[in-house]
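INTERNAL AUDIT FORM
Audit reference: QA-55
Scope: verify that the stored structure record matches its stored sequence.
Auditor: D.O.
Record contents follow.
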Amino acid sequence: MSNMITKKGFRVTAAGVVALAVVAAGATSAEAKGRTVIRSGGCDNSSATWKLKAQSDDGRIEVEFEVDANRVGQTWAVRMGDDGHRFFTGTRTTAGASGSFTVNRRIANRAGTDTIRARATRGAATCAGVVNF
């Protein structure tokens, strides 16, 4: 293939076309493999801890919010949202040997950076986290 000149005067070579194809394929492969962002911390007025995780999943975002209170049977009010769009509101009760609960949701991957917020409250105890994805 010989050099081609486009309307704007740029030269396009076969090597340039191949390089662009490789870069585009690399971007697609990276998304397919997934990206993960995890944040964690302690809860206010409680010994409980929280973890908020977001990862790419077939063009969507898989969000996981976990609160570990180390006590079975506690009921927490939970809210989760993405850039002001609430995608979960409800209650969860700690269970299992660890005295924890987890909320999992798959949400749309909106244009630009997604700011995902999760909050769980129980009386004066508040567990709140944010991830930018």
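Auditor finding: record pair retrieved intact. The helical segments are 14-33.
Action required: none
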